[in-house]
Amino acid sequence: MRILLFGKSGMLGSCLYENLSEHGHSVFGFTSSDGDITNTRKLKILFEELTPDIVINCAAYTAVDDAEKNQDLAMKINGRCTGKLAELCKTYKAVLIHFSTDYVFDGHKKTWKESDKTSPLNIYGESKLLGEKLIAENMKKFFIIRTSWLFGENGKNFVDTMAVLGKEKDEVSVVNDQFGSPTYTKDLAEKVIEFFVKKKPILAYGIYHITNSGTTNWSDFATYIFKTLFLETKVKEITAEKFNRPAKRPKYSTLKSTKFDFGMRPWRKAVKDYLRKYFIIAPY
Ligand SMILES: NC(=O)c1ccc[n+]([C@@H]2O[C@H](COP(=O)([O-])OP(=O)(O)OC[C@H]3O[C@@H](n4cnc5c(N)ncnc54)[C@H](OP(=O)(O)O)[C@@H]3O)[C@@H](O)[C@H]2O)c1
Q1: If DSSP codes are grouped into helix, strand and coil, which group holds residue 278?
Q2: Could you report the per-residue pLDDT of 221-238, keeping only the tens digit for each?
Q3: Model pTM?
């Protein structure tokens, strides 16, 4: 089976690429420089040469706040060009595995299932929703996996930010009125490979929700990170309104998986596992 993966240098892309290679899959990974998803001509050449069975798209415009001012670029990468990628998958008879976000929802209720009405509050969410819609319009053999609050190696994420701030500061202000499910890229990648990277998938095509289990808010998340790292840093709880970021975020965005139980472990266990890297002592 031949797999083409876009966004190879990103947080989720690098983890999936590594895992797929370790599992002995024949995977061709591309970064934004050698596999720009906005370059349809180049994509056609790649599809023609590599004839993939599966295309995994981890490429995305993920700067949520910047997307408010770079609306055109976000809509192009996450929306229109994702649609073009789906068209190519259909032409070349490849299954598309694509990732989307909890930010397609407006957060007015506590949990969100796959079929719930989408209504993004920010441009990033709108652009990801456009991508979802264009995929569904252009092809049938797709898996769209919505996930949330990702952390992992090779990417800017909340856990690393707090680990650094916790060592530098006595007190850190963190938002307490937004709730969601932190998700470790390693856990997500394992489930994606187990359930979706298959010649004949056991699950029906469509939209799935995969996150680590449990819900928290950003300030309790930060408190847990400090506690696990034995840091005495205090968390000052503030409201999202006070934090005042350019992009509005949903108050509640916990994704419920109603189609299948992926058996994801609790987010605290996953965070603890990820934080082990901070305990590694340099050999000099
Ligand atoms: N991070 C989260 O908390 C989160 C939450 C929910 C859903 N998701 C979704 O999960 C997926 C992976 O997210 P992530 O956090 O791993 O993202 P990431 O670390 O920002 O990686 C995204 C990758 O996309 C690449 N890219 C950007 N524009 C591209 C283009 N035009 N052509 C090809 N590649 C391009 C980037 O390459 P360069 O670095 O070279 O620009 C980067 O390596 C995305 O679909 C995202 O929307 C993420």
Answers
A1: helix
A2: 999 999 999 999 999 999
A3: 0.96
